[in-house]
Design a protein that fits this description.
This protein is of the alpha+beta class and 385 residues long. Among the domains are: 79 residues, no CATH class; 128 residues, Tetrahydropterin Synthase, Chain A. Helices cover 47% and strands 17% of the residues. The protein contains 10 helices and 11 strands. The strands form 4 sheets. Strands 6, 9, 10 and 11 form a 4-stranded antiparallel sheet that branches. Strands 3-2-5 form a 3-stranded antiparallel sheet, with no helix packed on it. The longest helix is centred in the C-terminal third of the chain and has 70 residues. The chain is rod-shaped, with a radius of gyration of 56 Å. It starts with 32 loop residues before the first helix and ends in a 16-residue tail after the last helix.
């Protein structure tokens, strides 16, 4: 595979950058065959009589050495690892978990990085183990203090979780970067400063955490992919976002005042939402009542005009009868609901007292007949003797 000149190559001796300088030896070192043969010969000389080997002894020794050399190619890959096989230092293939075989050293060798382990890097804070206090967090201001877009300073502590890419990421992880944790940490801090520098302090302190985490995650992944690091960022989690400790009290006062302002605005809006519909309803009710009164008045006026026209038509046909009828109807309306006494002016000539005509009070008779049965006088009961 091609090597970047910025890292000096896997066997280079020049300056080393973030792209690394060769494979990181994570597997067991194969045994030295020359030293093994030398020690075997010394043991055989001590065992064999005369201290010298014949032709058959040398052949047996060489056969044993070849067998041991061939068996040294067996290796085991753990379930959380991925085998990266190198042939004369060049990447050739990946090996799955389990028992595998490669050509013995120095032809082929294998590296087994942990590909399923989730790694975590904390920025702006450090975990400190104390025997008396237990686990505590220590702030690192040189990493956490950042400048926002509106020229304010915030204290941001966050964590980054990352893994090696499952497909093709192990070889890139081993050969393209020299210090994976340092690279991820530097990229994370740079991405967070860039995203915070484009934002105002108010959204950062209130409800924009999810947006910032997503932006930092995407920017970090893009940067690491451009490096060919073979690392996949799984999550960016902001732990603490506060103003600097010197001005945190003032910031809290500002937040409390802003909360009071929002509460007052919400209350005013709630009152307006309640009063305005009620006023509109009352206005609509008044308007509808006025329209109904207008329609009723117009209809009554038209009815009276039509009635007058009908009466006038009848009056032209029979004036005397119409006048008599109008007179009777008028008297009926006037005296229909009042008590009446009828006087006959000609009754005095007949010799009656005072000219008053006696009459039968039909209203009293009607009221007597309509009295409830319960109010009727009960008959007296008693034994007749």
């Amino acid at each position: 595979m091609p090597w970047s000149n910025q890292g000096g190559g896997p066997w280079g001796s020049g300056p080393k950058g973030p792209w690394g300088s060769g494979p990181q030896s994570t597997g067991p070192t194969p045994p030295d065959l020359e030293d093994l043969l030398r020690r075997s010969q010394d043991r055989l000389r001590r065992v064999l009589p005369g201290g010298s080997l014949g032709g058959k002894g040398i052949a047996v020794l060489l056969a044993i050495a070849v067998v041991l050399w061939g068996l040294s190619g067996f290796y085991r890959v753990e379930p959380d690892e991925l085998g990266v096989v190198l042939r004369f230092g060049k990447y050739t293939r990946d090996a799955t978990p389990g028992l595998n075989y490669h050509l013995p050293y120095p032809v082929e060798s294998v590296l087994t990085p942990k590909v399923t382990r989730v790694n975590r890097i904390d920025i702006g804070m450090r975990v400190v183990e104390d025997l008396r206090r237990g686990t505590t967090m220590r702030d690192v201001p040189e990493e956490s203090l950042m400048l926002t877009g509106d020229e304010n300073i915030v204290d941001v502590d966050f964590s980054v979780f990352w893994v090696i890419k499952p497909t093709g990421g192990a070889s890139q992880y081993l050969f393209n970067i020299q210090n994976p944790e340092g690279t991820v940490k530097a990229v994370a801090e740079s991405a967070m400063r860039e995203v915070v520098g484009r934002s105002d302090v108010q959204p950062i302190l209130t409800g924009a955490r999810q947006t910032i985490e997503t932006a930092v995650h995407d920017l970090m992944q893009k940067t690491l992919d451009s490096y060919g690091a073979g690392i996949q960022i799984t999550q960016v989690q902001m732990q603490k976002v506060d103003p600097p400790s010197q001005v945190i009290d003032s910031f809290r006062d500002v937040q409390a005042a802003r909360a009071d302002l929002e509460r007052a605005q919400n209350e005013a809006q709630t009152y307006a939402n309640r009063v305005v519909p009620e006023a509109r309803g009352r206005a609509a009710q008044v308007t509808q009542s006025a329209e109904a009164y207008r329609e009723q008045t117009v209809a009554e006026a038209r009815g009276q005009a039509g009635r007058f026209s009908k009466i006038y038509e009848e009056y032209k046909k029979a004036p005397e009868i119409t006048r008599e009828r109008l007179y009777l109807e008028t008297m009926e309306r006037l005296f229909g609901g009042s008590d009446k006494i009828i006087l006959d002016p000609g009754a005095g000539a007949l010799g009656t007292a005072g000219g008053i005509v006696p009459y039968l009070n039909l209203d009293e008779l009607g009221r007597r007949h309509t009295q409830p049965q319960s109010q009727a006088p009960r008959p007296q009961t008693g034994a007749a003797r």
